[in-house]
Amino acid sequence: MHSSQQRLYFLDWIRIAAFFLLVLYHTGMYYVNWDWHVKSPHASDTIEAFMMLSSPWRMSLLFLVSGVAAAFLLNKAGAGAFARQRSVRLLVPLVFGMLVIVPPQPYFEVVEKVAYQGSYLDFMKLYVNAYHGFCRGTDCLTLPTWNHLWFLPYLWVYCLLLAALAAVLGRPRWQQLGTSVANAMSGWKLVVLPVAILAIGRLALLNKFPHTNNLVWDWHNHATYFPIFMLGAMVAFHGALWQRMENIRFGALGTALGGWAFLMSYYAITDQMPPGQIGLWQDAQRVLYALVQWSAILAVCGFGHRHLQFDSAKRRYLTEAVFPVYILHQTLIIVFSQLIKPAHHGPVLEAVLLIVMTLSASFGIFEVVRRIPLLRPLFGLGRAARPVQAVPAATQAAA
């Protein structure tokens, strides 16, 4: 077990990198054929395989790191205070985001998809009154919406469940549970047990509950993200487990990349097959997907533990910046994409411009927000900047 002085800085760096990967991923969503809010005239399947390099594991990794952060906060504050603090830190930016940050996304979506002719103010009147008339056939847009901020309500619910479990068990039994789980995940079980849980959830639930980001009806996602979040919370203080991940990092990376290659072949082959002939191929693909998902997480954590266990002023700055950037980035991508669309740039230049503009605007807004106490809670920041000091891993706004 880590001593109270041990700092898991590598998880802060991983969290920073994972959130910034979202900027690249959501920029990519503008250019692929997968359904998204708006689409580039250049949209194609060209980069879809590269998007799939991170798609299986990116959000799962964030829930794992958030579980670790939650464990440190829970250990420090106790179950009741932890639940209250997490509620303020997550729900305030969620409500603000749904009312202020997110609405430009569905506005441009209905302009593009259903040729909406009203002004933004006209749209906002419909938005706050939960208008459900923006439809293409049976596919109707739900308003108001949280879009990319779905991570916040999911994490809030998981934190409340964690607090309830810790309160029921009491600290000694909660710590004993964490020790038992960490000890169980050794040798082959470090790979097989999580893959089995992820694969069972995928096989049993994905057909019935495709991903919707509907909190009360998203049971496959819950079967994926909640166990991973709880795993992070239970093993946060057990340094031996992170060392085991480091020890198998190359094998885990090779497994993730090899599995990705097979997944790409599966998608290419089955795209040409009638649905009735896919059969067991689909079940095998779902087990392979779970293996890729967990192997990639093992590789990221393993390499991070090996190379990123250090502090710096950059880490402290980015740890504070990353949550406001997350809140802002998708709206900025969509708004900027529509502003520069009339320029008819080529897709490469246009994508670079979108990334640069999004990051520049995100950090510019962050620099304003961090200096105004009334704005800080709206973007998931503490009400007052804290003195620079080392803190346990990822405890600064685990979002």
Automatic annotation (TrEMBL):
Q: Does the keyword Acyltransferase apply?
A: yes
- Enumerate the Pfam families for this protein: Acyl_transf_3
Could you list this entry's UniProt keywords, alphabetically sorted.
Acyltransferase, Membrane, Transferase, Transmembrane, Transmembrane helix
InterPro entries found in the cross-reference section: Acyl_transf_3_dom, Glucan_succinyl_AcylTrfase
Residues that span the membrane, as ranges: 12-32, 57-75, 87-104, 151-169, 181-205, 225-243, 250-267, 287-305, 317-339, 351-369
- Which parts of the sequence belong to the Acyltransferase domain? 9-365
- Protein name, as recorded: Acyltransferase family protein
